[in-house]
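Problem 3 from the worked examples.
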Amino acid sequence: TISKKTLQSRLKKRGDSPEQISARMAVYAEDLAQLERLATIPTLLVVSNDGAFQEAADKIKKGLLIETD
């Protein structure tokens, strides 16, 4: 997942037009609605895209029960 604020910031930073940002934010809203439905799956692993890459990788490893040194 990614926060709305982070997504908007990244889209602006890469130079997307207001129309492109608006369209992407509409897709983001749909994605959040789907995530609510998917959250009922007990084995669902949701990883935040707001933090550092290593944080996401560690969460995935933990979710998959992969041991790290």
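Problem 4, a separate protein:
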Amino acid sequence: MRASRPTATPRADVGSGATTPSEPAPQTAHVRDAATARDDSDPLADPDLPGTRRDGYVFPDYGGYCFANVPATVGDVLGADVGRPLPADALPDGEFSDVLVLLVDGLGWDRYREREADVPLLDTLASAGRATPLTSVYPSETAAAITTMHTGATPAEHGLLGWNVRLREHGLTCQSLPFTDREGESLQARTDGAVTGGDLFDADPVYGRLADAGVESHAVQAARVAEGPYSEAAMAGATRHGCDSLPELAVTARRLLERSEDPTYVYAYWSNVDGASHDEGTTSALYDAELEAVCGAVERELARVDPETADDTLVVLTADHGHLNADPTSAVDLAEFPDLWRERERHPDGEPIPPTGGPRNVQLHLRDGASAQRARERLAEAPFDARLLTGTEALEAGLFGPGEPSPLLRERVGDLVVVPRERNVWFGEEGRKLEFVGTHGGQSPEEMYVPFVAAGLGEWQRHGEG
């Protein structure tokens, strides 16, 4: 039986130029169910979208309709207390002993609403249940958000603030999820095993707490994602299933649901939509084809689940972040600001510390307070629009979330946080990121709003028959 859900409370907001917390008005989510007509207007112009917006920047709704609260919502449905769940109106009525979460990396609320009518799974899930926009966390990118998904902790609590992170204790920066250094060499090889997957973040995975409540957990994803030090650490307590194809992922998820005897959580993750967006943007034929492929494969297998299992199963489709389409020709290379580049802090071996985070969530590590001030003044004069916060201002404003901050947070946030309005901002040594068409990590509505679509599988099957 599902536990009662506490009432969500709003958190502080970070609007344009804000440096200290302020309490926003309580949020009302735009929940759509079968009785709600489709709104064909701009999906990002809806005044009921969660979070606080100032000057085009969205602050995460950590206390309410936020991706950070999805893990606890799964636990709540299955009778396990793993944190603050989403408000109750994000879920359909009913009691469920099994939950399937399909996480489509990179599917923003705007593209979900624009494709909903002609991608059958998107349309029928919402019609059989409820569709709710959530804010992502900050930064709105995979390493931070997926770590939140596996731990139930905010980025402030787990300390993994982006794809590129500083490992101060080891005197290097790395690519977090691939578990490599900047040149692509394995961290295990480079450090003779001194760096482990657990060094990347500072929070326990939710799967142990789910197991304590009698819930069996499975993580189903591409084989290249399922293995490796990050996955081993972040998914400890879940059984990992590596798949070589999209059909295999969908079939594996169905079989796990049908074979379950205990309450079961199946987490299925697919990243190709995100990759298509990086390469060609969210309005490209490739993006549409990848979205249709994952939805089509999962839809076929959900229709095959036996009715008894279906009646016990809640299906959720969600995403970690959306994408902003950027013009690669307008990208900003920080290495072209030599006076700023000289201000960088250095590793113990004398190497300058490169920017960390990503091209939409830049963290600069600078020599001292005076360097940070000079860098801020220099970037304020640069020919691109961005929010500039000192690391202290970002922490005090709660940008990375509430909760007990990890010691990793202070050392990784850096001295200056740069949140570009529209462009990619990075550096030429890693120029591939400057070429991204679809991009994410920042606070634009396109990046920050994601779907949370939930329906009982039995109701969905019956809806499809009608």
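Solution to problem 4. The chain has two domains: 50-156+198-325+445-465, 327-438. The longest helix spans residues 285-304.
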